[in-house]
Amino acid sequence: MKGTWKNPAIGSARADVVLTAPEAGVPLLFIEADNCTEEAVLIAQKFDKYARFFQRQEKDTDGIEKPLWRTRWSAPACDEYERVHPPVLLVFHQVGQRSAKSQMARVADLTRHHWQGRWHPEGGYHSYDRCIPIVATTLQELRAHGPVGPAFWRFGRDHRQPLLDAIGNARRDTYLAHRRQAAREEQRRREEREAAEREARRPVCKDCGQKFTDARWEAIGYTRGWGERESHPHLCEDCQGRAVAAEAQAEADERERQEQERLRQEAEEQAAAAQKAGGWLSRFRT
């Protein structure tokens, strides 16, 4: 609870075993072993130390303050719904005169304030925010079932489970999975609705009746200046191309017509001038 890793303060929490097996789904597990010789009150007092240890905050090498245990061991990041402390496993070995079963029940009763969650009526699960998941078993149960068998009792539950189920929160995970799925479905429906609304606004070519492509729609909607505006914004790309070509041809034809008209006028003027000159010459000869 105080001091450093190398020199912890007297009375600090000291687990018998610290297990890190992320490849097996157990990122971090503290293990306490008891031969059924220690009083339940003394075992329960260990969890007061664990609670203070889990609450201790220190700055990590990145300068960010976080729980001290996270500066030494890796674990999944906390999510927005609850911040659960690492689980602690009690393993009882029936050597002493005390009953392992009665020891479990007594320790569970004495540590209730550390492990008891709050009922989440909307989701149908218990939230264990700031709680310590405490799991108990016996060496006999471990030998009989192993870690994947129903050998572990999570304090507060009425049945034994495999280790991963006991230290987890399956109902919460199911609820959050459904929420995420519902959010994805709502996002999909919203995107489909927005796409349909956008499609309904898509312009239609006034000539051929075809809908504009996205590129054409964007082209007629974005211009950097009046001189760079797209021509024929009411037409699609193909009809615009044909319209531009037709206009160019019409302009060429008009220029040709004007040129022909100019040549005709020049010819008429030359003819008129020649005729006029011929009239004066004939009068001079007379």
Can you characterise this structure?
There is one protein chain. With 286 residues, this protein is an alpha+beta fold. The chain has two domains: 17-168, no CATH class; 214-276, no CATH class. Helices cover 46% and strands 14% of the residues. It contains eight helices and ten strands. It has helices at residues 40-55, 100-110, 112-115, 139-145, 163-167, 170-201, 214-221, 237-285; strands spanning 17-21, 26-34, 57-59, 65-67, 88-92, 118-120, 125-127, 134-138, 152-154, 160-161. The strands form three sheets. A six-stranded mixed β-sheet has the order 1-2-5-8-9-10. Strand 1 and strand 2 form a beta hairpin. The termini are far apart.
Keywords:
286 residues; single chain; 2 domains; alpha+beta
Topology of helices and strands:
Layout (H helix, E strand, L loop, with lengths): L16 E5 L4 E9 L5 H16 L1 E3 L5 E3 L20 E5 L7 H11 L1 H4 L2 E3 L4 E3 L6 E5 H7 L6 E3 L5 E2 L1 H5 L2 H32 L12 H8 L15 H49 L1
Helix pairs in contact: 1-2
Which range does the strand content fall in? 5-15%
* Unreliable residue stretches: none
Number of strands: 10
The percentage helix is 40-55%
Spell out the helices and strands N to C: EEHEEEHHEEEHEEHHHH
Q: Count structural domains.
A: 2
Multimerization state: single chain
What order do the strands of the largest sheet run in, or round the barrel if closed? 1-2-5-8-9-10
Helix-strand category: alpha+beta
Helical run tally: 8
Mean pLDDT: 88
Rough shape? Answer: rod-shaped
**What's the N-to-C terminus distance?**
140 Å
Note the main sheet: 6 strands, mixed
What is the alpha-carbon Rg in Å?
Answer: 44 Å
